[in-house]
Hints:
The chain has 150 residues and is an alpha+beta fold. Helices cover 41% and strands 19% of the residues. It has helices at 15-28, 79-95, 118-148, and strands at residues 44-45, 51-56, 63-72, 97-101, 106-111. Strands 1-2-3-5-4 form a five-stranded antiparallel beta sheet. Strand 4 and strand 5 form a beta hairpin. The protein is elongated.
Amino acid sequence: MNAIPSNPLPETATRAQVDFLSQLAVHIGVPVVDRFSMVAPQVVKGPAGLACRFHLHAEHAGVLPEVLLPIAAQELAGAEVLKLLTLQAAILKEFGGYLGASAEGLLQLSSLSWIESPQDAATSMDMLNRLAVSVLQALLEEAAPASGTA
């Protein structure tokens, strides 16, 4: 995705990164003292109740937002995989986001570019949460008829 390393430790973060995370925390409703709890691998609950996190750029004040979906990638099969690929293409084309798998093996929506404004990062996280809910609904919609015909 991006070759620049992310997630400096709190004690090695620059003043600009700390200020950025403090402002971002205010925008998303996290106490400022908990600003590093938003940085991967930690997660916070997003507006849709999904696990969210931010990758902090290693060299400057910027983040990559991510939303984890409560579905493991290996749980999908058959028509669900086709639906997933269709959704992935639409998200990439329409929103510039990426639907893939997280390090934990869960489906994940993420930004493809570093965001350098706390307000824009919060807005991106909100958008990713709305998209994640739509993805979940679309995938569960596919599964519902099959499970209802027992």
